[in-house]
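S1.2 Input.
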Amino acid sequence: MQKDSPIKNALLNARKIVIKIGSNTLAKADGTQNTDFMHDFARQCKSLIEKGKQIVVVSSGAQVSGVSTLKEWARKKDVHFRQALAAIGQVELMAQWRKAFGDFGLHIGQLLFTKDDFEDNHRSLNIRNTIFTLVDEGAVPIINENDSVSTDEFAIGDNDNLSALTAILWSADLLILFSDIDGIYTDNPKTNPNALLVETVSNIDELRKKIKIGGTNDFGTGGIETKIQAAQKTTIYGIPLILANGSRENVLDELASDNALGTLFLAE
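S1.3 Output.
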């Protein structure tokens, strides 16, 4: 009998799961919101919740949602326009998440953070208590960085690291990062057909020596580097991390049934 993969076991054994969704996963090719993905993702979360899991979502996409609403602002690069775009987009993003989860009888709660929130003990305790209350009452927290007020001095900078900080604060059992790639490769698989998928990582320092790390993508602020940084944060606290392709159909279901590719960073 074939043994279950480490990824499947990590997901099935976890009760408290943080799932981060990147901007590329939430955006269609034209840069507008992928509401079909959001609806199907909510369905998969509902299935996990019915199996006794608790779910916290870290969702990028405020600026993507802003562009969907105000297309004439898409090319404006001034920081004040980008922050205003995030303020408008965050409303639209949450409206779509509310609809997606509401279709399956689930309530959501919005939490917006800056770096200071995690560095102040009183604030971080309040964050932890609020997350616990929401999930204990069956609601799904939707977390994002507060891009409308964050500056370089106060910004976490990317939602990979934000999701790691959230997972640690909540004492999660697993962090899943959804991006536009199937996992960590030895090189960029989009340009190098000989690149190999790294299925499990037990030593991050050794991993860095074996792979080439590229830049960021079109819509996101991260890249492979920020995903490795997130894994460095969580695995020290005993929280494994899965990196998988969020654009794959039924990706959560597929990970749980051993039918999806991904990279598992093993907890230390």
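S1.4 Remarks. The mean pLDDT is 87.
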